[in-house]
Amino acid sequence: MNPSPPTLREATAVWLRVAALSFGGPAGQIAVMHRILVDEKRWIGEARFLHALNYCMLLPGPEAQQLATYVGWLLHGTRGGLVAGWLFVLPGFLSILALSLLYTSFGHLDPVAGLFFGLKAAVLAVVVEAVQRIGKRVLKNGAMVAVAVASFVGIFFFGLPFPLLVLGAGLVGAVGDRFRPDLFEVVKGHAAPGGGSGGGLLDHQLDGVAAARPSTRSTLRTAGTWLVLWGTPVVAIHLALGTDHVFSQLGRFFSAVATVTFGGAYSVLAYVAQQAVEHHGWLSAGEMLDGLGMAETTPGPLIQVVQFVGFLAAFREPGALSPLAAGVLGSVLTTWVTFAPCFLWIFTGAPYIEWLRGNRRLTAALSTITAAVVGVVLNLAIWFALHVAFGRVELWQGPLGFRLQLPDPATIDLPAVGIAALAFLATFRLHLGMIRTLLGAAVLGVAWTLLSG
Fold it and tell me: Is the pTM of this model over 0.90?
C-alpha cells in the first residue's frame, strides 16, 4: 500500500529534520535524504531518487541542496521547492553567521583563537580525504588521470582560473566522446546510500506531472523570473554604490562563482581562496581555513563557507555602516547570489530531466570536468598544507607565467603540524569520521593555546 500524499506542512517538518541532520558534506547529506525520503517516508522511489541525483550532478552548485529542491518541487511544485531548498541552507547560514560574529568580536580571546587553530590544522586531512574520494570515483583510466594532472599543473604552477579549467575539461570530454566514449563516459550515476529499493509515492501518483514537458513560454517565464530575482540586488547595489564598493564586488564575484561550482564545493574553493585572499585581500589564508572549519562543523552545504568570506570582506570595508551591520549584510548578499541560481537551474531545467539524463555527450563532459576537479582539489590541499604548516609563504614568479609557492622554513608551526598529523591518523587510520576528527582537533587547539599562553 502506498503512503498518502504529504501536505506541505508535513513536508516542511521533514525538510527541517533533513536540514538539521545535514552534516558531513554532500555524501552524508544525500545519505540522510535517502534514508528519510526513500526508506522511511517512501515519498520517492529508488530509481527516481537516482534520476534526480544524476540531474543535480550535471549542474553547478551544491548537489545535495539542489536534490532537496528538486524533490520538494516534485511534491508541491514551486512552493515545495522553495521550502526544501531554503530550509536546507538556513541552519548553516545561522550557524556560520553566529560563528562569524563570535570570530570578529571575541577571536582575540585564547579559547576562541585555540578553537580555530585546531580546526584549521584538521581541515587539511578533510581536504585530502576529498581528493581521495573524488579520485576513486573518476580516475578510472589514463585519459582521466591526464586531465587531472593537466588541471593541477594549470592551477598550481600557472594560476589558471578555475572557470577556464572547467570549460576546457568540458570541451575535451565532449570532443573525446566522439572518438573514445569508453574513456570519457566514466561518471554514469550514483549508487544510492542505504541500498533501498522499490517504488515510492511519486513513482505512482506524480509521474504525469513530473513528465509533462513545459512550453517554451513557461520555461522562458520561469528562467526570466529567477534571473531577475538573482540579478536585481546585484544591479541595484552597483547603481547605488558604484562598481568598486565591496558589496558590488561580492555580488559580482560570487554570482560568477555560482555558475562554475561543478563537482562540489571543494572544486571551487581553490578559486575562491585564490581570488579572495590574493586578488581582493578580503581575508588571509589562515582566515580562509578558519571559515572552512566553520563550514565543515555546521549543517548545510560546504559552499556556505563563502558566507564567512562575505562577512569578513564587508566587516573590514563597512563604509557608512557599523562593521557588524556591514558583515551581516555581506553574509546575506553572498548567500543570496550563491543559492538563488540553484532555484533557477532546478525550476527551469527539472521538467527536461529525461532529455538531459540521456545525453551521452553531456555525461562525457561531466566526467571530464570531475577529473579536472581532482587536480583542482589537490591544489587546494597543497595550498592549505603550506599555510597550515608555515607562517609565511611567498609566491615566486618565473617566466611564461610559471609560479611557485615557497614556504619560509623558519616559520614552521610545529603544534599545527602535530594536530594535522593526528587528524590524518584519525581520518585515514582510525576512521573516526569528519565531525569527531574536527571536534577533537578543536579541543587540542584550545588546550594548546591555553597551555602555551
Answer: no
Residue 317's CB is within 10 A of a number of other CB atoms, namely 17
Our count of domains for the chain comes to 1
User: What is the maximal distance between C-alpha atoms in the chain?
Assistant: 70
pLDDT tens sequence across 33-80: 888 888 888 888 776 777 677 678 767 888 889 999 999 998 888 999
> Would you say residue 3 lies in a domain?
no
DSSP 311-335: HHHHHHS-TTS-HHHHHHHHHHHHH
336: helix, coil or strand? helix
Residue 416 lies in a domain: yes
Instruction: Tell me which residue of 278, 298, 252, 255 sits closest to 383, measured CA to CA.
Output: 278
Contact 337, 230 (CB under 8 A): yes
Print the domain residue range for 171.
8-452
CB 285 within 8 A of CB 392: no
Burial class (CB in 10 A: 0-12, 13-18, 19+), 416: buried
The C-alpha cell 502506498 sits at 2
